[in-house]
Each structure stands twice: as structure tokens, then as C-alpha cells.
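Problem 12. The chain below contains 456 residues. Write out its predicted structure in C-alpha cell notation.
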Amino acid sequence: MDEYDLIVIGTGGAAMAAGIEARSRGNSVLLVEHGPLGGTCLNIGCVPSKNLLAAAGQRHRAATHPFEGISTSAGPVALGALMEQKQALIDRLRQAKYADVADAHGFPILQGHARFIDQETLQVDGQALRARHGYVVATGVAPHIPDLPGLGDVAYLTSTTAMEQQDLPASMVVLGAGYVGLEQAQLWAHLGVAVTIVGRFAPHAEPEVADVLLGVFQDEGITVVQERATEVRATHDGVEVRTGSERRLTGQRLLVATGRFADTSDLALNAAGVATDRRGFVVVDENQRTTNPRVFAAGDVSGVPQYVYVAAQTGHVAAAGALGQPSAVDYRGLPGVTFTTPQIASAGLTEDQALAAGHACECRVLVAQDIPRALVNQDTRGVLKLVIDAESRKILGVHAALDGAGELMLAATYAIKFGLTVDDLADTWAPYLTMSEALRIAAGLFRSALPTSCCA
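Solution.
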């Protein structure tokens, strides 16, 4: 039986981080993968979606820019060529950031399906393996398919299969208006598809932020139906979705984007004494340790926020814990970005979360009409909201719907993590005519609601 100090199941961001952590400590490590090297983010998540969103955004700007006297146009989309370029990027990153990194750090990757046969032993396609110190489960998530009447009778798309299409449909209904649904809806709309999106719109965003994006979607001709889908039916030319109010929404294709559940199928976690919750997510403590003290879990499969940078950090923590040096992830100021146009982004607590945590909080909302960068861009659809503790005046949360909102969130995370006050932000240099200047301007609203001159 082959033995390693640590065995990791998966090769995504969490798994690679675990492998790197183990090798940095001088331990032997094996990664096991039954699918493409690189996990969700590289193959079917972050990389392909943001690549296609960037392409679709270029087309949309050419067709709709706000500048007088400038003539541009946007013709038909050769979707096959776009998909080839996307796949070439994935292949290049898979080699450079995964295969080459594994080689450089000196840990092998075994291709095959892993199953626990008891609390101490893993089996990969019939080969028994044992880890001297422990295991890390980092198998990610898969699209959740709801139990919706009629759904099994239609050839629906998921975010994965939608990004493999070779021909553009004329129309599409998107089920789900969370971050994946929002990105997918606008992606296909910007490529020329007539899109209807169904579900509670941007449910995790601050209401001021969600309202901005809702207005943009409506301006762009995306039909937004904030109702629950109750039934799906196949039609002679596509699908029909019925809602709770008996609305009938039709499209040539249906895209299901109703969240992601843990991918723990056929791992036999019960044989290893590893507990999961009702959605399949592995139950872990703050050190990423499961109910089996020799098995740790990291990344999306462990129920943490589904960002690749969180996956990577939990991978480091899980490997360190398995090797006898437990630690925990510090989530203060955690940023998140939805790559719509405009982007919606956040760091830290929402207003409701701050109140629930016992803070006497204050909030201010800066509209994009008061941001010089937005004015020169000829696009003032946007807001920036700051949430602070009223007593200490420390920054608790930053939320935005702005062009490049995600670029503001690194500074926001620093402010929250290191305890900066709103006065620190207001009194700190900010370069004029950048979107990041909005942080300083918004901070000034806590001193006075009166307007200021450009840089005053």
C-alpha cells in the first residue's frame, strides 16, 4: 500500500494550496483528481465566465457607448471562435498554474476516482492509499438542480454547459438571480440574446446596490421577473416557465442557475466517519477539521464562501491542521465581486449584519452623480455605501455598484481588517478622477451632507 504524509482529493484552488502548504513543511503529498486538472474556478467557473463577460462587455460598449461624435458598431457574434479562445486560455493556465506548479513543488497528481473504504484508507480506482498524517477533501461544488415540475423533460443548460454553446440562441430564460444568474444573464444579453431572468434579484446585495443593477438590466432590455418559478414545460420552439402569479415566460433555451451544492458524490464519506449537512457540504470546525479528526475539508465543499481565494486560504489551513499545526481563516473584511456591468461588490458587513452583531451603526450612500470619475465616463448609474460603527467610527462594510467596483474592495478590506475609521478614509490622499476616490468622498459624508467642490 502506497503511503504519503498527506493525501488531497481534488486539484482546484483549495487542493493546490494544501499541496503547496504540505510541501513547504517538508511533507510528502499526493493529489487525486477524477476530472480535469484545475477544479471549478479554472475549468467552468471564474476564468471562463470572466473571459466571456469581458468579450461580451466589449461588444456591448461598442453598441451602446455614451459619447457623442464617436461612431462604433457591434456585428454578429462568431460564438465558436470566442469559445475556442476561451478554451485556449483555460488550457494555458492549466499548464502554467497547475501542472507546472505541482511539478515545481514536487507533488504528484494521480488521475482516478477516490473513495474512502474506512476511516484510515482511501481507494483510487482499486488502488489502496494511506495518509500518515491525514486527508484533505477539496472536491468543490456542482450546480444545484431544483426539484421543479417539468424540469427533467427539457434540455436545460447550467452555467457550465451554457459556456460550451457553439451557437447563440435567440432567447433565453435564466432561473436564479444570484451572482451566477446575474453574470450569465448579462453575458448572453450583451452577446445579443433576448434574456429573461427569474428569481429574487441580487438577494445578498445591499438594497441600494441591487436597485442600481436592476435599473441597468431593465435599461438593457433584460426582463426581470422577481417571482418563484413553479413549473417548466417544453414547447415546439423552446421552453415555457410558469411563475407563482401564473406568468408564462418563454425562451429558446433555459439556463438553471439556482446555486451550487457540494460535490461529494461517491466519496463514501460515511465510511470515513465524515458528516455532511443536508446540501452535502462537509461539516468542519474553524480549523477545517471534519468529524473524523484525521480528515479535513477545504474550499467550496466545506461550506465556506464560494470564492477561489477563500478556497486557497482554507486549503492552507486544512493542510496545516492535518500536519499538526492548526490555524483558522480570518474572514474580516472579506471582499466579493459580481462581474456584471456595473460590477457589484462588497467587503465586510451589510447594514443588517452590523445591527444583528450589536453595532450602533451609521450608513451613508454616495451616488455616482457625485463621483467625478463617473461624470467623465458619462455613466452615473451607481452608488457606494459605507457602514460604520457609530461609537468607534470604524469601517464595518463597504458596498458598491459602480464601474470597477471590485477594484475598490482591496482598499476597503484593508480599512476593515486594520481598524481604520471613517475619518482616516476622509483624511487620506485619493487620486483625482479615479473611481477609488469615491471612498474618500463617501467618508466625507459622515462629516457633512453639503456638496463639496471637485477635490475639497
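Discussion. The longest strand covers residues 127-137. Students who got a different answer should revisit the alignment rule from Section 12.3.
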